[in-house]
Amino acid sequence: MKINQILKSKGLVARGYKKQGKITMVDTNEGQYIYKEGRLNPQILNYLKSRSFDYLPFFLNNQNDTYQLTNYIKDLDIPKDQKILDLIKLTALLHSKTTHYKEIDLDYYEKIYEDLDNNLNYLYIYYTDLITIIESKVYMSPSEQLLARNITKIYETIDKNKEKLDRWHAHLKEKRKERRVVLHNNLKLDHFLESDKAYLISWDKSKIGNPVFDLYKLYKNHALDFDFENILNEYENIYPLTKEEKELFFILISQPEPINFDHSEYKNCKIISKMLDKMFKTEILISPKKSKDRTK
Fold first, then answer.
1. Based on the domain organization, do 252 and 211 belong to the same domain?
2. What is the mean pLDDT of residues 68-97?
3. What is the CATH number of the domain that holds 174?
4. Is residue 44 part of a domain?
5. Res 172: pLDDT
6. 3-state secondary structure the chain
């Protein structure tokens, strides 16, 4: 169904369109609206409604529609450092309101363990092959030198993460129940608006799961943009993580990433520097002293 037909069925008349990425802003006789392709999970929306979590835009479409039509929300001009704290508080509220317990699915977590363990093994082989090629060269490029100088740190991170992964796996076998929450599953500043109240938008990937996956997505999107010690403190003031949840979160954010040299030399250096910055910042964040301070 075309946008014009959808709007007409809602008693709206389009006066103009503006495409912005995956969304279309529509100016109508009744104000502005946002149109987006994609079906939402009706079970998630109903559950949020039953738990009185109403920090969502107003949806004009029916639950089974293959599109989303919502009211336009004008975002206030708020400093990003404050906005990220407001976002994490709302995330903690989301998790708090939707918490429920179920028998732990060991097969599900066994798959997570195997995937993470296989990824660490792959990264070790990947970087071993890569550094062997680099060190065989008579002259290294600046980006290759940068990687070679830090390869020991990458190996150290992989080894430590394997140890943490094995400890988490052992602790998990002792558990009988786990916490499950509604995950927004795509947390980033672009999906958080503040107007008459706070709003989380873009719920296309929402699902039920372990709360750490929302934190992991947020860290993945903004690790180098903010002080995540403060962000985690704000979250845990409202919704403290369990020992196993925190272990899994630290493992997820500590995973190194494979680096290739398919870009310009300038961009290669920038990518490697960014990866190393994130690695060192993560190491400080998950240090025993920092973790202890957050639990006081």
1. yes
2. 95
3. 3.90.1200
4. yes
5. 87
6. CCHHHHHHHCCCCEEEEEEECCEEEEEECCEEEEEEECCCCHHHHHHHHHCCCCCCCCECCCCCCCEEEEECCCCCCCCHHHHHHHHHHHHHHHHHHCCEEEECCHHHHHHHHHHHHHHHHHHHHHHHHHHHHHHCCCCCCHHHHHHHHHHHHHHHHHHHHHHHHHHHHHHHCCCCEEEEEEECCCCCHHHEEECCCEEECCCCCCEEECCHHHHHHHHHHHCCCCCHHHHHHHHHHHCCCCHHHHHHHHHHHHCCCCCCCCCCHHHHHHHHHHHHHHHHHHHHHCCHHHHHHHHC
